[in-house]
Amino acid sequence: MRTRIVRTLAGTLSLLALSGTVLAPSATAQDDYYSGTEGLTGDALKTKLHEIISESEQLTYDQVWEGLQATDQDPANPDNVILLYSGESRAKDANGGDVGDWNREHVWAKSHGDFGTAPGPGTDLHHLRPTDVQVNSTRDSKDFDNGGSEVDGAPGNYTDDDSFEPRDEVKGDVARMILYMAVRYEGTDGFADLEPNDQVGNGSAPYLGRISVLLEWHASDPPDAVEQNRNTVIYERFQHNRNPFIDHPEWAGEIW
């Protein structure tokens, strides 16, 4: 049976604490991680953050299954994961490619830069999320923007011929995943230089839009306890790097 989860900060913190899930690190620990960013803005800040977050482990595409079962675990039911777009709680073992399964959604669509599923951007947990197979197919490789018709199986999400709008509860999450990818992958490690731009229909170019809309989503839906906890689970258990725009939302405006 599928259920919806309504996330509130107080309730989520209580559930996470009860389940024994790792909570966000202290401010001091975060300051240590981001040492050297003090006083930087613009390209200098982006370059320093790239240097910091590029120190990371890489997963195989098979290992992503295990990663998502941990990072997106339903705090109310440890046997389930929460699906990004629909917000549904679904059994961890219902993963695969069939109708009713959940699969591995590349929020930065892997065709935008043609990086596939090789270790690196194709397996980076900071932008991979569990989604319903059919909803994932509807999103396809579209850029992000407002508008369209409501998506079957995912109320609150909208799509048209060239864009996808996620539900309000995860708009900021999506934006911060895109900003992370733009800082992490700068074309220096055998992959394309990924950059957000302000258009849709980017095709196979290493761009994804629209940055003006993504920044609006980032501001309107700030990081919550679930997103902060996810960031820490990735850091402590899997890749050992962080999404700086979850820890320091103000840096988005310093760079873009």
UniProtKB/TrEMBL annotation:
The keyword Flavoprotein does not apply. Pfam families: Endonuclease_1. Keywords: Hydrolase, Nuclease, Signal. The keyword Signal applies. InterPro entries: Endonuclease-I, His-Me_finger_sf. One of its GO terms (molecular function) is nuclease activity. Residues 113-164 are annotated as: Disordered. This is Ribonuclease. It comes from Prauserella flavalba.
